[in-house]
Amino acid sequence: MNDYYERLTSLLMEKNSKLSYGRARTWVELLWEDFETTYAKAGREYQGKAVAEKVVRTWVAQYGDKLHDFAALNPKYAHMLNDEEDILH
């Protein structure tokens, strides 16, 4: 599982230089979890990690450069950018 997260985190960091590694990894994990939860709630049969990776990869490609803006405007996710001690890589 860690390999999937690492690949997606690297991709997100390429798309959005404003995110630290920790923030990018958290976003990847949240997006992955959101996809799996939504898929399950819809009553669909689990298609495996490869499908989840493909969906999250698509989301990162489309929205990755804007995630920091989304978080800043949405109080539910504002804490995603509050930590000024994050190290940018």
Note down, in words, how this protein is organized.
By secondary structure, the protein is mainly alpha-helical. It has one domain (1-81). It is built from four helices and no strands. The chain has helices at residues 2-15, 21-41, 49-63, 67-73. Helix 2 packs across helix 3. The longest helix is centred in the middle third of the chain and has 21 residues, at 21-41. It is globular and about 35 Å long. The mean pLDDT is 84.
Summarize the structure in short.
This protein is an all-alpha fold and 89 residues long. The chain has helices at 2-15, 21-41, 49-63, 67-73.
Which terms summarize this structure?
mainly alpha, 4 helices, 89 residues, single chain, WVELL protein, WVELL
Q: Helical segment tally?
A: 4
The overall pLDDT, averaged over residues, is: 84
Q: Oligomeric status of the shown chains?
A: single chain
Low-confidence stretches: none
CA-CA gap between termini: 22 Å
Task: Give the % helix.
Answer: 55-70%
General form: globular
Radius of gyration: 13 Å
Q: How many domains in all?
A: 1
Reading the helices and strands in chain order gives HHHH
Layout: helices, strands, pairs:
Blueprint lengths: L1 H14 L5 H21 L7 H15 L3 H7 L16
Helix pairs in contact: 1-2, 1-3, 2-3
Protein name: WVELL protein
Organism: Siminovitchia terrae (Bacillus terrae)
